[in-house]
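Review form for a predicted model. The reviewer records the input and the model, then writes brief findings.
Reviewer: anonymous (R2)
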Amino acid sequence: MQIGRYRVSLHNHGPFRLDGGAMFGSVPKPLWATWTEPDERNRIRMATRSLIVEDESGRRLLVDVGCGDKWPEKQRDIFAIPADPYVPVPGVTDVLLTHLHFDHAGGVSSRDSTGRLVPNYPDARHYVSRANLENAKNPNIRERASYLAENVDVLTEVDLCLTDDANEVWPGVFVHQASGHTLGLQWVEVTDAGLTIAFPSDLCPTSHHLPQHFTMGYDMCAERGVNEKREFLERAVAGRWLVVFQHDPDVAAATVSFDDKGRPVKHPVADI
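Model under review:
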């Protein structure tokens, strides 16, 4: 898709699975199981979809990098992560990490033949939220299993740019912070020529999470997340944004409207 000066595309780093109850929080299983069928271990399918933004000069920005391949067998089994080597997206000059949870930042590094951790995009500038980096270095007890040192420490070996709320990292490419899911998460807005594509990350991980009150058990502050999502949806509807769902295995992107009761309605886009 062309957004003004930018060519925008999507890339899925591969599937994994998470517990359906955790993904939908207080939503009863008889409801969420009709939208996404759980396996025998109550896990649902998840995508690791990235946004790729390319400008006319050949710069290529990759938003998030998937789960990566640094997984012990026990965790690989828990999350149903395929035993495939991580394949870096070619031609990437810039990497933007929405936050440093393993399913968003795991592909930032791999182990070489000696077992040493090496960056997968060593020559790329990496954009990370200042608040989220500090959070990842000192995770609370609930997030300790999601913020892995192997995905954080390697950032000292790359060109690192720390971002704050509402920063413009490229012309027309903005990051906005929303901390209901985790402190310092940044969602991405790409705007040019009157068109906007938004990448909300875990502010709205799948198209099934559009209802304002549908929060995840993984969210650190559900009330804050509800309010942040409402603000995001109001902007998305008013601006007729195209919204990309990072973890939805079936619906990659959609525009959104409100019905006569104020409930968000998705209008899937077949291709981007």
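Findings: The radius of gyration is 18 Å.
Further findings: The helical segments are 20-24, 29-35, 73-79, 102-105, 130-137, 149-152, 222-239.
Recommendation: see findings above.
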